[in-house]
Amino acid sequence: MSLTQAQAPKAARARRLDPAPVLLGAVIFVVAWQALVWIGGYEPWLLPGPLVVGQRFVDAWLDGTIAPHATATLLEIVLGFTVGAGLALLVGMLLARSHFAERLLSPYLVAAQATPILAIAPLIALWFGTGLLSKVLICALIVFFPVAIATMVGIRSVDKRLVEMARAFRATRSQLVRQVEIPAALPAILGGMRVGVTLAVIGAIIGEWAGGERGLGVLINLARGSLFDTPLLFATLATIALIGIVLYLVVVAVERRMVGARG
Amino acid sequence: MSTRKEVTLSLVSRRPAGLFAAGLVAVLVAGLVAACGSGSTASPTVGAPTPLRVGLGYIPSVQFAQFYLADQAGYYREAGLEVTFENKSDPDLVTLVGQGVVDIGIADGTSLIPAVSQGIPVRYVATIYADFPSIVFAKASSGITGPADLKGRKLGIPGKYGSSWIMLQALLASVGLTPADLELVEFPKYGQDVAVREGVVDAATGFVNNEPVQLELSGEKVVVLTVDAITPLPGPGLITGEATLAGPKKAALKAFVAATLRAMKEIAADPLKGWDAAVAVVPELASDRETQLAVLNATVDAWQSSYTDANGWGAVDEGAWTESIDFMSGLPDSPVAKPVTVDQLVSKELLP
Predict the structure, then answer these.
(1) Do A28 and B23 touch (CB under 8 A)?
(2) What is the pTM of this model?
(3) What b/e sequence results for A75-100 when a residue is b if at least 16 CB atoms lie within 10 Å of its CB, and e otherwise?
């Protein structure tokens, strides 16, 4: 992969890193949004314009309304993602190596993924309380499936000739896993993590809806159900979106660095 | 491997256009939905019944028996109304009524104060619960007899929001306490009744016509702490939008209020009428007749107070509203964004 990158024309690389399309898209989006509010004549409690939301976003960060909730949600996401992705790596490797394990566990994994987390979250809050633990578990649950499946597929897709070559050089089982299988499966695993990290954001919010004192999900409920503060609701949604985008880009950056270095 | 890398990079570089398109579609859809909603009040034609969309609480229940009876007994029809009931959560209902999508509905008075302070154009037009239904309850064996006894106790709440949170703060303030003087345990899915019954908490917030009723039916002696004599908070009542109130449906709304109050009086005189009407709408209620009938009786008790006895069913106590505004505005994390007056919140135009 690094070879591909090295061979790519400098102009193409510059185009990829050019921030202009991102800024242009943002400007068009904001202008269209504001135009809609002007044309429709909507009051801020119904559809606040971007200027109102922007002002509320800044105010809510400066006066400490959003910060403690955002910190709580971020902690839940990071812990939940770490636990979920870590377990998923182990289970994914087990599934890749053992068809018996795959047949044994797959129905339950698929069933767990198909069951709406929105329905499970109140039960988890009931069993484990409405503290950090239940949110971490909900995040971990939602992250688990995409990372486990990506790991399984990634390891099964490793070039058999690489494995045979490592064995020919008398690589131990541990060396085979650490130095051949995992590095070769990294693109797939990190692809699963990209999906997982955005799902972790959703998991944290759902966990907070099931109960809790802090978190952006709680702030959404407060803004909507108690304060009737629609601009604050939008500012909270913007914060959630920003957290999701930043975490996604972090995984992408890790992916570029790790996969690129190994290419 | 190289293919994977290219996909990665292309996602990063091309995503803004996709994000923009998705965001634009979302905003346009939201705008269209809003636009569709705000134009829903049609003028009634002579002779034809006036359609009214009526918002009730989240789940159909015996607590809405007066609306069911007025509908089934033909009081709405006699008044020239074609009523459609819709079940909505309180926050949704306040917004939809303000928007004019729902013509009239039942909502908490304590929700209305922050809603109007945010500019949502709604008015409280008739009192349904003359006594504030949100209360604190405990087993008599807990030794709790008044708000002062709550100090240091474990108290269950659904969360730090809504009418129960306002009520709790008013109750505690009356004896110089704050929520920090208690150990609060949150039950977001309203499991406070079980928590009190099982002794997980010493007391909990609830509704006068729900948890204490069920606890008493299980054979437990119950203590109920109410806020009415301390800070007369406005209970759930009928609300309508300012534009709807000023529009062509005003006479229909007035007729609706009168028909509903008529049904309330009939149920107060004979609760079984309300029971039959509720079972006709929610047949599942019949499977637990004793409990649901007790809930209805407690609901009927909450419809009446000394103020409504003196001023008539549905009467709106403006003095109590003023006290509530003052109290809620002075709370540490006040939900009242901007100053509001009683005139902005209440209208007596639809009362008989």
Answers:
(1) no
(2) 0.80
(3) bbbbbbbebbbebbbebbbbbbeeee
